[in-house]
Structure formats: structure tokens, C-alpha cells
Design a protein that fits this description.
With 413 residues, the chain is an alpha/beta fold. The chain folds into 2 domains: 113 residues, Urease, subunit C, domain 1 (Roll); 287 residues, TIM Barrel. The protein is built from 15 helices and 16 strands. Strands 1, 2, 3, 4, 5, 14, 15 and 16 form an 8-stranded mixed beta sheet that branches. β10, α8 and β11 form a beta-alpha-beta unit. The protein binds N-(iminomethyl)-L-glutamic acid (NIG) and fe (iii) ion. N-(iminomethyl)-L-glutamic acid binds next to α3. The site of N-(iminomethyl)-L-glutamic acid (NIG) has 12 residues, from α3.
Length: 413
């Protein structure tokens, strides 16, 4: 089927080539004013200025009038924990009342709380909850998403989560990437026996994951009190031997050299980055590894935001993602992520949009099919309500400015 979209006020992020954006390039957002776009069988087949459209194209029957609307490629959310069994607003209230992280953990809170909930949840129940969240975020403009395991923390639990993600991949129109995060925290029974849990990951989980093709990437929460540098390296190397590239949780709480380890392992991305020292920034700037910033997690945990300006100015390639999870970012709204990156981290609107589209696509290795407007890419687009300029999107924070979302050429209902 062929669809023609006419009178687009501004067609945004039009790029002939997909290149990972860094430095000043991140602030350039190529757009066409008063544009048309042609879609064939869910794929972008042409576009240009309205005044230059050939007459015969105007006779395409299936026509959509996008007068007053900006059209953008959908968000590429490259870091989420969208599969979880229960929310954790009780911990949220405890924190407001002044309880520390340790006190909340002692009450059975945190990642282990989510893990105990997964245990009692069937694959079908988990799937239907995750499906609803996926539908919600797609209506908010997300067209590609990475989803992690990490609340299983046992062979059965981790495989259950990864099988749910696999089913989401099969059933959803969204582009989905799957990450194995068995090394999210040590389960209680392995608290004093780290090697025992690492053996479980390497000998019991990874071979099944590889055999059933349950993951695209491997992740480790590399922090003081979680997985050390040495443990992280061991686990990543085991994953890499099965072809899983690392995408790591680093420098959220402490600067222990985790970013440098990610760079050394040629990780696809290192994510969080609230606590970056000069060494970590230099290592990242001189690498192909993407730095994924998660401003809503910093906001929710009342932590200092990631030093986006320093990272961009140093030449790091940065992406933006939601970190959607019940503990540190119970929202998968990428529009809010964009606003927070501008408000809290002083990213320019163009930088934020590029980081959440082009660079987000690179952080999931889907840059050849998504992340910008180009012939041959998937027609995953969102149409805005009437807005005065692109900067209005982050400026008008918390307001839903998306009129409709298209995935593979079809509107999401
Ligand atoms: O990315 N930092 C580690 N993991 C998650 C939060 C986990 C949780 O609290 O459930 C994150 O913020
Ligand atoms: Fe995370």
C-alpha cells in the first residue's frame, strides 16, 4: 500500500546517511518545511518540499493531510526494564519519609523486591503487563525499545523474563532489542558466594540464552556493592563469547572505572553516567562506545543530573533513554526525558532530539532502519499537535504534544 502525507509543517531529522553524532554535529537537526512524505508498505519511499512534488504523486489515493503538524521519527528508547511484575510506590513513600537506601533494602526493597515479585508471576501475566506498558509508550512516540531482564536473578526467573521479551518481539510492531541482565544484583543466598552466582550465570543461564537466542546484549550493574570491575569483566567476556555485546550500567553511584572497562570491552553503550570523573570522560570521548544518559532516573532518585554538557563538549557520543523500571524511573515517557535533558542538563532541544533518535538507534544497532527520515527506513513517525517550533516540545514539559503515532506506516490506535 502507498500512502502520501501532505502539507507537513516541518519534516524533522531528514538525513541521507546515518552517522553517530558527537560534538557540534549533535546540535544540527536537518528539517524540510512544508513537506510531503511517501510510504510504501511501511517503508519511507520518498519525501521533499510540497512545491516540488510531481503531479502524478498527488493522485495517490491514500492521502493524509498533516497541516500544522511537525513529523518526526519515533523515539529510540535504548535502555529500559519494561518487564516487571509490580510497582514499588511503597518504597517511594518510604524515601519521602526519610528512609535510606539501606533501610529500604533491609525491609526487602530494591531490586530484590522486584525479583521476589517475578518469582510468583507467570510468563503470561508478565507478558500482558509488559504489553500494556509497550502500548502506552508507543502512544507517547516510542517506536523502538531495548528491554532488559534482571529481576529474575535465578535460572528460572531470568529465562522467564527473556522469554517474555522474546514474545513481545514476536507480537509487537515495535522494534525490540533484548538484553540479559542476570548480573543486576546478587540474590540473598549468593551474597557471600559471588563466584557461585557468577558460575550460575556463565554455566546455567548463558548457554540456554544463546541456544534459544533469547538476548542481543549482555548487561552488568557495575558498582560498589553490586558487581566489581573484575566480576563485570568476567561476566561480559562470557557473554561476548556467545556474541552478546555489552551494554552496561556504570557510574550511577560511584566512579570506580566502570566506564573505562566498558570502553576496553568495546561495549555498545555505557549507561547512567551520573558520576563521571575526568578519566571516565576522556576514555568515553576517545571510543566508539555510546554514553546513554538517563535523566529521569537521576530526577526520580534526587541525584545530580548527568554532566551532559561536559560529555558532549568533550566529544562523547551521547544517547538519551528512559530507564523505565519500577525502582528508579517508573515512567517510559521519552518526551519527559527530552524535557529533563534540556531543563536539568542544559542540552539544546536539537541535541536532545538527536540523542533520542539517531544516537538512540545506534545504541540498539538499528540505525539502518530507524532513527531518522531516510528512504528505505521504517515509517515509524509521530505527528505533533499544532506547535510553534521544535523547541516547544521540551519547553512545554509534561504536556502531551503528540497527536498521533505511526508504526510501520500504520497509525497506532
Ligand atoms: O537502571 N541501577 C540499576 N538498575 C535500575 C534500577 C533497579 C531497580 O531499582 O529496580 C536502574 O536504575
Ligand atoms: Fe537501568
Amino acid at each position: 500500500m502507498t500512502t502520501l502525507i501532505v502539507n507537513i509543517k516541518q519534516l524533522c531529522n531528514v538525513r541521507a546517511e546515518s552517522t553517530l553524532l558527537r560534538g557540534k554535529e549533535l546540535a544540527t537537526l536537518p528539517c524540510i518545511e512544508n513537506a510531503y512524505l511517501i510510504i510504501e508498505d511501511g517503508i519511507i519511499a520518498g519525501f521533499g518540499k510540497m512545491k516540488e512534488i510531481e503531479k502524478e504523486k498527488l493522485s495517490i489515493e491514500n492521502k493524509i493531510d498533516a497541516a500544522d503538524q511537525f513529523v518526526l521519527p519515533t523515539w529510540c528508547d535504548s535502555h529500559t526494564h519494561l518487564v516487571f511484575a509490580a510497582s514499588r510506590e511503597d518504597e517511594f513513600v518510604d524515601k519521602i519519609k526519610g528512609l535510606s537506601y539501606a533501610e529500604i533494602a533491609a525491609k526487602g526493597g530494591g531490586i530484590l523486591n522486584s525479583a521476589s515479585k517475578i518469582e510468583n508471576c507467570s510468563e503470561d501475566q508478565l507478558f500482558s503487563m509488559a504489553w500494556k506498558r509497550l502500548e502506552e509508550v508507543s502512544k507517547l512516540g516510542t517506536g523502538a525499545i531495548e528491554i532488559k531482564s534482571g529481576y529474575g536473578l535465578s535460572v528460572v526467573g531470568e529465562l522467564k523474563m527473556l522469554r517474555v521479551i522474546k514474545k513481545l518481539k514476536e507480537k509487537s510492531n515495535l522494534t525490540i532489542k533484548s538484553t540479559f541482565l542476570g548480573a543486576h544484583t546478587y540474590p540473598l543466598q549468593y551474597k557471600e558466594n559471588h563466584q557461585g552466582y557468577i558460575d550460575l550465570i556463565i554455566n546455567e543461564m548463558l548457554p540456554v540464552i544463546a541456544k534459544e537466542k533469547l538476548a542481543d546484549y549482555i548487561d552488568v550493574f557495575c558498582e560498589t556493592g553490586f558487581f566489581s570491575i573484575k566480576e563485570t569483566e568476567t561476566i561480559c567476556k562470557a557473554g561476548m563469547s556467545y556474541g552478546l555485546k555489552p551494554k552496561l550500567h556504570v557510574n550511577q553511584l560511584n566512579a570506580i572505572g566502570a566506564t573505562q572497562l566498558g570502553v576496553k570491552l568495546n561495549a555498545l553503550s555505557v549507561d547512567h553516567l551520573e558520576t563521571m570523573d575526568d578519566d571516565a570522560i576522556n576514555a568515553l570521548a576517545n571510543s566508539n562506545t555510546i554514553g546513554t544518559l538517563l535523566p529521569t532516573a537521576a530526577f526520580f532518585l534526587r541525584m545530580p543530573f548527568q554532566p551532559a554538557r561536559k560529555l558532549i563538549d568533550a566529544g562523547c557520543a551521547v544517547a538519551l533513554a528512559s530507564d523505565f523500571n519500577p525502582g528508579s524511573s517508573p515512567s517510559g515517557n521519552m518526551n519527559l526525558v527530552i524535557s529533563m535533558s534540556c531543563i536539568g542538563m542544559k542540552m539544546l532541544p536539537e541535541e536532545a532530539i538527536n540523542a533520542a533518535t539517531v544516537n538512540g538507534a545506534f545504541a540498539m544497532e538499528v540505525q539502518n532502519e530507524l532513527g531518522s527520515i531516510a528512504i528505505g527506513k521504517k515509517a515509524n513517525l509521530f505527528f505533533t499537535k499544532p506547535i510553534s517550533s521544535l523547541a516547544y516540545l521540551p519547553y512545554s514539559f509534561g504536556n502531551n504534544l503528540i497527536k498521533r503515532v505511526m508504526i510501520k506506516g500504520e497509525f497506532v490506535s
